[in-house]
Here is the input.
Amino acid sequence: MSAKIVARSAEKRFQTRQGWMTALHGFDLEVAEGEFLCLVGPSGCGKSTFLRILAGLDHATDGEVRITPGPDPRQPLANVVFQEYAVFPWKTVLHNVAFGLEMRGVRRAEREAAARRWIDKVALTRFADYYPAQLSGGMKQRVSIARALANDPQVLLMDEPLGALDAQTRAVLQEELLQLWEEARKTVLYVTHSIDEAVFLGDRVVVMTAHPGTLKTVIDVDLPRPRDLGVMATPAFAALTGAVWEALRDEVHRAMAEQA
Here is the structure.
């Protein structure tokens, strides 16, 4: 399959009080069209920095980072779902989900119909006219995911989107997210600190080194799809999470030593 996301020798340096700091160094990556790729690494290794560069919220200091545009110039290149509940408190669920379409100039009837379809898909039908203050954390994050998908981006960039949720809600939304992905087959780059989550969701898991971040290894997740949480109880799942931890362990210790 063709590469939708490409990074070639990507570098990112920041000016700090102590001088220049390198967040990414010689980072190479390809993500195929329609692939669900999970990115893991120790804190401070540049995972979120790379995602922000892809989203156009930052820029690479050197090298190449790009998303290959699709054939329809009207289709947004990428949408981002952050860990924080990035919903507008003054807008209802319906108008939050329809926001991206509104910004693209889609007619009201069309954008609200599309928003309602995605609200139905994330099981928030009864809450379409509620405001974020009336929703739980998990429901707010469903709104964020529905808003991103309703805008029909070519690539979905997700930065710890379930990290702030309790374990039960997180498990439910992991399954829901996979079901939505199975339907839409968007290209997804998913940043997470959870090894279990990375293996459960991803087609591949990319392990990054400690700061400065670069690619250490790539682990193929050969678990069959579609998946449900029952796969986490299998020996194959345990072997894969063990392989990811084996690759990640020294990097975590190195990052902690540098922060001490």
Summary: Strands lie at 3-16, 19-32, 36-40, 62-67, 78-81, 155-159, 187-191, 204-208, 215-220. Residues 5-77+155-259 form a domain with the Rossmann fold fold (CATH 3.40.50.300).
